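During the reporting period, we have paired protein sequences with backbone structure tokens. One record among many follows, to show the layout:
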Amino acid sequence: MGALAFRFPVLQCGGGGGGGGGGFPSFLPKEIHNIRDPSARTLAQRIRRVPVQIGFSENCIMSSCVTPTMYRDSNPVVLLHCFDSSCLEWRSAYPLLEKAGLEAWAIDILGWGFSDLERRPPCNVASKRNHLYQLWKSHIKRPMTLVGPSLGAAVAIDFAVNFPEAVDSLVLINASVYAKGTGYMTKLPKAMAYAMVSLLKSIPIRFYAKRLVFEGLPLSRTIDWMNVGRLHCLLPWWEDATVDFMLSGGYNVSGQIKQVKQKTLIVCSEDDKIISSEFSERLQSELPNAVIQKVSECGHMPHVEKPDAIARLIVDFADSEGCNKKPVSYLNDDLSANNLRLGAKRSFNGSCLLIRRMSAILLADAVLRTLPCQPNGFSGMQNCHNLFFDLKWHHSLIHKRFSKKKRKSLYVSAWPDRSRLVVFSSMGGDSSEDFSNLFDDDDGPSGKSKVLEIGENELLATREALSEAHAREEAIEKERDKLLEELARAEAKQQEYMATIMHDKELAVTELEAAKALFHQKLQESVEEKFNLESKLVLAKQDAVELAIQVEKLAEIAFQQATSHILEDAQMRVSAAETSAAEAAYRIEEQIRSATEGTIVSIVKQSKDAIDKALAAAQAAGDHTEKAMAAFTVDLNPLEEIVSIKSQNVKLQNAVTDFESQLLGSKNEIGRLKLELEQTLLRAQAYELQARNSEKELLDFQESTRKVFLQQEEEVRILLEKMKKDSTDKRKAASKAFKVELETIKAALEAAKGAAWSKDEAYMRRCEALQRSLKAAEATSKTWRQRAEMAESLLLKQVPLSEQDEDAIYVVNGGRIDLLMDDDSQKWKLLSDGPRREIPDWMARQIRSIHPKFPPRKTGLPEARFSKFKTLELPKPDEVWSIARVKTKEDDTLVEHVMEKEIIEKKRKALERALQRKTIKWQRTPEETKLEPGTGTGREIVFQGFNWESWRRQWYLELAPKAADLSRCGITAVWFPPPTESVAPQGYMPSDLYNLNSAYGSQEELKSCIEEMHNQDLLALGDVVLNHRCAHKQSPNGVWNIFGGRLAWGPEAIVCDDPNFQGRGNPSSGDIFHAAPNIDHSQDFVRRDIKEWLNSLRNDIGFDGWRLDFVRGFSGGYVKEYVEASNPSFAIGEYWDSLAYEGGNLSYNQDSHRQRIVDWINATGGTSSAFDVTTKGILHSALHNQYWRLIDPQGKPTGVMGWWPSRAVTFLENHDTGSTQGHWPFPREKLTQGYAYILTHPGTPVVFYDHFYDFGIRDSITELIEARRRAGIHCRSPIKIYHAHNDGYVAKIGDTLVVKLGHFDWNPSKEVDLDGTWQKFVDKGIDYQLWLRHLGRIFFFPGVSIYMDKFAAEELSC
């Protein structure tokens, strides 16, 4: 890589990463600290998130990527990653590409990597493509060289075909482009898909994959690389995103390959066991403009295994495309002393290198002249000439910036097919002769005829170049000396800085010691608190012992009950078993008896029938015999009769045989039945035996249970005795401690009584002194009356000056006389202050600051007589105030006076603002009392009364008691959470609009909370979601688009271009919110129902105004209609749009962003304000020493505040940007500075709940609200910006307030154009400072007029 680094030198530019200071970005999983690979750790520190606005999300998606450290004129190189991976794949190759001078981006594909996907956007192919396009459109903005390894190649091809204007060329590494998406996995049930994805994250699968991709890798490195590869899987949304991608079908780009028109570099690995090189060759044949390069001895991921080879291929390919140009802008263009020193060193080294190369050129030329000229030495000479040519080429490449004219390069010509070599060269030294020898090799290998030709012009050119090099070297030496001097000065400054740092270190050590002392003090207090807690713990343990005894008793009773139930159940089971056995035996005996009787009866019947038949046959035979005998007697033939008789006998014998066989079968059946009867009896005996065994086991169980119970009872008894003993000991110890504490309390009470008695004595003495003072005052009053009469008579020339009055000195000054008497401080105090009330310090300071313009004092009585001023017209003696005539109240003691004074002071401070609020209604002009829905009164200060987690508590009951506190602090309106029933507990997925029983509380609790706000003169603003609404039922198609509740709408209430809910309304007039059905506000019945609902919230619930959620989803004209119908006191719209960024940094010009917000306000006819998202985004960067962002070219603020301040609602954070969501959190260390900006500037400021009650800056916010009130700042106050630069920001708002932000050394006296007297009201050092203008007023009191400032007058009026 030496040549590569030489061609493209490393540029030291300020990098942007998210980790700052060597740390990792906070959004990375904590397992990043376990990674050992240094290149992975380095690249991870540079990962940052940039905002990307995509169509299916309400807000920006913060996409993770590695941004370049420099930006170039040429096309950038954008690096994608493989399937289910992250930008850390390029941990080894990315630094090499940067060293080569390329502008490189490493981007995480949507769904993988470290992007913030908490809102769960779709992660299918279209979403990934759209996300990549929006990122390119927002941040890269130039045609790029898109690099995709493995599945990233399919991503690159899909993107290049759909957005050809964004892609200049492609680099495909082991491209996986012939796969048919995710195949059968699209038909898997979700549960099965999640199971497969969980398996994909498992360590064994990941380890096997690494072994398959990287062969021969050590085990420790394999494990470390496996941890790098699965790091992104630890983010909470990884499984959802991957399952979404699998079920969507994945990438299938085989049909798009031939549509790629860009030039393509195909890189394949020879040893890739995942993607065969045949696929790369096939891809080359199908792409119209492609070349292929192979990497040997490498697996599936060559950019990890051989990053140098991949970087070289990408750089060469970029060079061939004309992508490699010099950088034109850097992220950090500040040159420090080290950079100057480095530049000087490089310049000097470059000059020395130039001299060395010139010497090498001459040396090479001399060597060439001395080489033998045989043909077998031709290759050596050619190599030397090639070396000479290389040196000359490097010289012209590196040092062409030092050359003022074009140099000639030496010409080397060689003909390998001929035996003639002509060399043009120049001799070294001072010789001016030219030699030209031609060596001709025509005669054979002897080389007798060779010619060396030397040109005089070449020698002169070389000498001129050498002289120029000497002159340049001298110039560089001078430049180096100058730079070394600057370096010395920089080192001196560094020493000064070190001294300052050491001083600061000593101060820090001193502060540390003070903190240590404070810590010891706190520790002592903690020890005392611990002693108190231990005493309480003793009592708590005693209660616990008693509770344990009761628990043991209850456990004993429960155990006995449970045991008795078990015994009864066992006995019942045994009885049931015995009964079942007896019943079974009886049934068997009955069956046997019935079967036997039936068989015997049938046998007897058959036998009887057979006997009857035999008897009948015998009777018939007898009759036949008689007939035969009779026939025989009558000479019949007897033989035939004999034969018939014999046949009948045979039949009878057969019948008898059958009868016998039947009788034998019956006997066998009877034997079988007897056998079954015996078996049944045996089974009955077995059942009886089993019942006896069960009864025996039951008895054993009862005995064992009784033993266990007795044992447990004994253990419980021992434990109770032990606990009683311990409790007795603890009770004694607690009693002893209590007695000691009681003695201490008694001693303290005695001391307190003594102190009180001493105090009473002191008060009595003071009362006696006061009485004496009263008597002295009466005498002084008499003296005053006498001397006043004497002075009046003297001035009227009635009584001459007597000698006894010489002790008094009169000073006449035309309207005032001061009597200077002997110094009696107690008398003067009584005369000036009176007996009850002391003059406050602030009033005393104001009185001392008054310098009345009296005429010059006269030093003598004669001058006074001839003065042009009138004589004194003193009041009559009865009109002169005298302490003697002032009577105290009954039972008015000094103690009661002090206590009364303290109570009145506390009440005054508590009621000052409430009285001010009551009286301001009488003082307001008609313009100030007029309410407009777009501005309210113009002096509103809104408080967001919830955060993202407020639904977890009974929020309405918790918010209501805070109403009085908010009113005292100057809040005028409270923003409530969404009141309706919602699918999401936070309220932003509403379903039944009229059901106001939400996660924050019931409808009655809501009305009670609003009523409490009204009691404290606070407006209640309801958060209403009008853009979308969640359905209650599914349509026949299975789509959730049937609404329920009082507003039972159907699909006709949903816009038709909502891609998820099959609406049948008109197209949307704004952006689509993909999480719920978007309402079609163009339908008359929808607008009518919404207006009725808003009016019910106004009239029945008590809401005064609205905060409108996601107003980007529908036209502002509908908002105007809703506002005019419901007539709110104040309305605010949430129009949250992405700001403009350039190269990952916030753009200075945000006119397009605030123009979109102003256009929406215009669409509402000015009936609604809008959140000033522009000002929030600018403050994020401006407060980090970039205050120049706070002024636009016209000298106005750069947000909506600068164009339409009366409709700008300024804020720092809300439930989306801050709280537990943290989509766009404001820098915490800059919160007070941010509030100092929005609370002192025009517009309507919003205070977030977490900041006011949880972040510890409540007092600072209250102080800023008070400053806004005193200065009379409102939403239309004019603003004049005096300074806005890196050091700070200064502006005057209205005529009475000046604010300064930052460490800029400034005060109003330094500003020429800032007239008037200014008094510092708030001083927070380098964060912010506030001044209020000194406005004077004349207040008249009996006998005196005082000129004091406005704020002292307000204190006095309270």
